[in-house]
């Protein structure tokens, strides 16, 4: 009997981001994509979230390669963290490797084994024969993957939409997908991001018409904020700027970096060389300037956020300027984006964004395109990927409407394992998965408990109690001194803290001598007394940190 093919999602199912899918056969494995998730409002102080690699680390010799479908951060951002622990080759297209290479350089991983692949040129890794198939997305050089295994062929779509008039001329490869469907597809893993949208996703070129109308009527500076990886969008902005006699000034570290990489590799062809924000561009008339920047999601440290608050060192918004937010509002970011838009209006700018103008189109397939993918590939089994649970459920329903039997459609979440043999597909024992927080240079040293403590501090503040006691007698030598931060206003704190100090002294005086001589017992009594007092007096629960000094 043949070994079963194991499908193991490490991240990206039931959530957006952290995309990582492992295919295993006979003790050998490949990972498709390796992405990050950007922290939400509840991830206080966290810079990035990456997948927990425990399952792969337990099988260090099993992982033979990582294969990347395209260059977005939610698909490549965690690669440096994996390569620190697992030395494996990374296969990707030219642009994806260019974007990844810069990340690896930041992590001192310039000697990583990077291997360029091209659509239509298969290669082998262990028991797998893999071929990239060209698909269209909001970035160039994007692939679906056909992975031939001893059990059958798996197709992983990556992120895709069907754009018949793509900016970069890289056509969606209907023929290769249809040919695979005729030969027989065992399993389809398909992008679920836009499954709630009926119809078709508009072409990238449709944004160009809206942008041109805005360029034609604008008389001041034009500031365009988009994702730094949206190379086709950047190309349209560069072309329109040339047409209307404007120079493009690039602001924001990631925008400058990605634009330079795309130019060097020939994926971005600006009519004139870009200027960068620290160069002398302010002498140009306002109606001859296009500013291209990051921060379309309202990120607090982004260039756009600083510009909106009039806190940018070189870029100022003035009355009559135009700002275009050429990206979608990612769920969870609506409030921060709205704040940025309000500040831009206060500066006198005219602001265009997705809700009021067609300045953005999605890079993901809507329902009719998802049906087309199913009809082209005609899979025996189907697993929806890349989406929250509601998206996976709707995509399963769509697959059933397209003719995949209900019993052959599986909804998996991270850690679930699907085993496929020539006879059947079935769920088996799940594997451990999770999220690892990256905070500055620390990876994994901040867990849920620390996040909980940070949330507690942010909501209720902290009170520090410092006191000195005699080591032998347990008598109080000094204190307790109470210091608070984020708890009560300074003008109110003196009386409240003085009463709290008296409560602590009373509680200590009631303790017997032997107990007072134990610093840990004394520390716990101070903590309980202060928490009880603040809860009764103010109905608040600050973090209480007692410090006992023995004299």
Please explain how this structure is put together.
This protein is an alpha/beta fold and 551 residues long. Helix 4 packs across helix 8 (253-265) and helix 6 packs parallel to helix 7. The longest helix has 20 residues, at 490-509.
Question: What's the topology here?
Answer:
Elements: E1 5-11, E2 20-25, E3 28-32, E4 48-51, H1 54-57, E5 63-67, H2 73-76, H3 79-83, E6 90-92, H4 94-106, E7 114-116, E8 123-125, E9 128-135, E10 142-148, E11 153-156, H5 174-183, E12 185-191, H6 205-217, E13 222-225, H7 231-243, E14 247-250, H8 253-265, E15 275-276, E16 289-293, H9 303-308, E17 322-325, H10 334-346, E18 350-352, H11 367-377, E19 379-385, H12 389-401, E20 417-420, E21 425-428, E22 435-439, E23 442-443, H13 448-460, E24 462-469, E25 476-485, H14 490-509, H15 513-516, H16 519-538, E26 543-550
Helix/strand class = alpha/beta
**Radius of gyration (Å):** 28 Å
How are strands sequenced across the largest beta sheet? 7-6-5-3-2-1-20-21
Broad shape: globular
Mean pLDDT: 87
Tally of alpha and pi helices:
16
Number of beta strands = 26
Distance between the termini: 75 Å
Provide the β-strand percentage band: 15-25%
Percent range of helical residues:
25-40%
Characterize the main sheet. 8 strands, mixed
- Give unreliable regions as ranges: none
């Amino acid at each position: 009997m043949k070994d079963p093919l194991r499908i193991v999602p490490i991240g990206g199912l039931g959530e957006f981001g952290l995309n990582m899918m492992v295919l295993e056969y006979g003790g050998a494995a490949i990972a498709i994509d390796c992405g990050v998730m950007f922290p939400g409002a509840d991830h206080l102080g966290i810079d990035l979230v990456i997948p927990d690699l425990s399952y792969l680390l337990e099988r260090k010799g099993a992982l033979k390669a990582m294969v990347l479908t395209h260059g977005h951060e939610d698909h490549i951002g965690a690669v440096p963290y994996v390569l620190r622990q697992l030395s494996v080759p990374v296969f990707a297209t030219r642009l994806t490797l260019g974007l990844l290479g810069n990340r690896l350089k930041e992590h001192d991983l310039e000697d990583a084994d990077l291997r360029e692949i091209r659509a239509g040129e298969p290669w082998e890794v262990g028991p797998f024969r893999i071929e990239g198939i060209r698909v269209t997305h909001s970035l160039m050089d994007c692939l679906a993957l056909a992975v031939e295994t001893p059990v059958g062929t798996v197709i992983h779509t990556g992120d895709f939409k069907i754009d018949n008039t793509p900016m970069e001329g890289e056509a969606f490869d209907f023929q290769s997908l249809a040919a695979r469907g005729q030969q027989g597809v065992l399993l389809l893993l398909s992008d679920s991001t836009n499954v709630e949208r009926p119809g078709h996703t508009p072409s990238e070129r449709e944004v160009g018409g809206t942008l041109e109308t805005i360029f034609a009527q604008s008389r001041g500076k034009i500031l365009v904020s988009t994702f730094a990886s949206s190379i086709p969008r950047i190309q349209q902005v560069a072309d329109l700027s040339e047409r209307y006699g404007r120079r493009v000034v690039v602001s924001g570290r990631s925008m400058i970096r990605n634009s330079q990489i795309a130019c060097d590799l020939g994926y971005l062809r600006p009519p004139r060389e870009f200027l960068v924000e620290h160069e002398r561009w302010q002498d140009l008339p306002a109606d001859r300037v296009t500013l291209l920047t990051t921060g379309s999601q309202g990120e607090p440290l982004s260039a756009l956020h600083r510009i909106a608050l009039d806190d940018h060192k070189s870029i100022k918004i003035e009355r009559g300027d135009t700002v275009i937010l050429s990206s979608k509002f990612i769920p969870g970011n609506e409030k921060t984006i709205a704040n940025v838009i309000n500040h831009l209006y206060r500066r006198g700018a005219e602001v265009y964004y997705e809700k009021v103008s067609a300045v953005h189109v999605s890079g993901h397939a809507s329902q009719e395109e998802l049906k087309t993918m199913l009809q082209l590939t005609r899979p025996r089994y189907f697993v929806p990927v890349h989406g929250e649970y509601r998206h996976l459920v709707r995509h399963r329903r769509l697959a059933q409407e397209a003719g995949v039997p209900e019993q052959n459609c599986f909804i998996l979440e991270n850690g679930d394992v699907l085993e496929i043999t020539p006879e059947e597909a079935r769920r088996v024992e799940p594997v451990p998965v999770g999220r690892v927080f990256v905070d500055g240079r620390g990876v994994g040293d901040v867990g849920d408990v620390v996040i909980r403590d940070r949330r507690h501090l942010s909501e209720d503040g902290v009170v520090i109690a410092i006191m000195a006691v005699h080591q032998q007698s347990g008598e109080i030598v000094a204190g307790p001194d109470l210091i608070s931060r984020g708890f009560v206003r300074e003008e109110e704190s003196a009386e409240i803290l003085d009463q709290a100090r008296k409560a602590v002294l009373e509680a200590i005086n009631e303790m017997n001598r032997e107990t007072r001589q134990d610093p840990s017992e004394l520390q716990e009594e101070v903590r309980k007394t202060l928490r009880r007092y603040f809860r009764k007096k103010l109905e608040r629960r600050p973090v209480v940190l007692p410090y006992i000094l023995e004299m």
